């Protein structure tokens, strides 16, 4: 006996299912499912600024960084985008003063420099291989001694030369372009039986 089943009923399981989108804000009950061929587009939430607004924002950040207080590189990288105000008090205010309140006293510093070299090198055991370390340490200590005097608006550069005494001739010459009224240079020498030290400190006025 042949079955009278409709051939269309057997093909129901083979038909592809339709996919639809339901609005999450509305009530899904009682609404028709859209067809699979239709597409829905969501509104973009990415903030898009105009070119003028971006340029204005970058200029404000640059001005605030230039006028603000000095920061380390790591801190500046973290705080760059947080500082949006350009009305920041600058680091240095105009004093309208062209002279130093505490100028350099050449006679006092020359005496201090001679005494420092004598006290530092009298008991030093000289080794030719350590001459470089001796020059570095003496120059650093000399610069620190000048800084402790707290002369206002001055920068110090110390230059020290160390050499062996082997019956040779030695000349130390230096040249610089500076202001003779405000800049100065102090030099001192120290001689031992087996070595010598020539120290110079350049005092440059920094307004």
Describe the structure.
- Belongs to the dynein light chain Tctex-type family.
- This is Dynein light chain.
- Residues 1-50 are annotated as: Disordered.
- One of its GO terms (cellular component) is cytoplasm.
- This protein is of the alpha+beta class.
- The chain has a domain at 106-205: Ribosomal protein S3 C-terminal domain.
- It has five helices and three strands, in the order αααααβββ.
- The chain has helices at 7-10, 51-67, 73-79, 106-121, 131-148; strands spanning 154-164, 184-191, 195-205.
- A three-stranded antiparallel sheet has the order 1-3-2, with helices on one face.
- The longest helix has 18 residues, at 131-148.
- It is elongated, with a radius of gyration of 40 Å.
Helix content: 25-40%
The biggest beta sheet reads:
3 strands, antiparallel
CATH class of the domain at 106-205: Alpha Beta
Oligomeric form of this entry?
A: single chain
The parts where pLDDT drops under 50 for at least 5 residues are 26-31, 33-37
InterPro entries: Tctex-1-like, Tctex-1-like_sf
GO molecular function: dynein intermediate chain binding
Protein name: Dynein light chain
Organism: Anopheles minimus
Could you outline the blueprint of secondary structure elements for this entry?
Blueprint: H1 7-10, H2 51-67, H3 73-79, H4 106-121, H5 131-148, E1 154-164, E2 184-191, E3 195-205
Antiparallel strand pairs: 1-3, 2-3
């Amino acid at each position: 006996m042949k079955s009278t089943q409709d051939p269309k009923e057997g093909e129901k399981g083979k038909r592809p299912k339709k996919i639809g989108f339901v609005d999450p804000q509305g009530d899904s009950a009682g609404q028709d499912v859209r067809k699979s061929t239709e597409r829905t587009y969501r509104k973009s939430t990415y903030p898009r600024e105009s070119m003028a607004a971006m340029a204005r924002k970058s200029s404000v950040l640059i001005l605030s960084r230039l006028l603000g207080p000095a920061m380390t590189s790591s801190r500046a990288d973290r705080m760059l985008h947080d500082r949006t105000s350009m009305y920041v008090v600058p680091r240095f205010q105009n004093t309208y003063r062209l002279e130093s309140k505490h100028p350099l006293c050449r006679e006092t510093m020359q005496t201090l420099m001679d005494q420092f070299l004598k006290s530092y090198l009298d008991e030093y055991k000289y080794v030719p291989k350590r001459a470089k370390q001796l020059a570095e340490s003496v120059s650093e200590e000399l610069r620190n001694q000048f800084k402790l005097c707290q002369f206002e608006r001055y920068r110090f550069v110390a230059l020290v030369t160390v050499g062996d005494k082997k019956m040779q001739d030695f000349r130390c010459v230096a040249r610089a372009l500076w202001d003779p009224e405000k800049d100065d240079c102090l030099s001192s020498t120290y001689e031992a039986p087996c070595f010598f030290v020539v120290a110079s400190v350049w005092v440059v006025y920094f307004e």
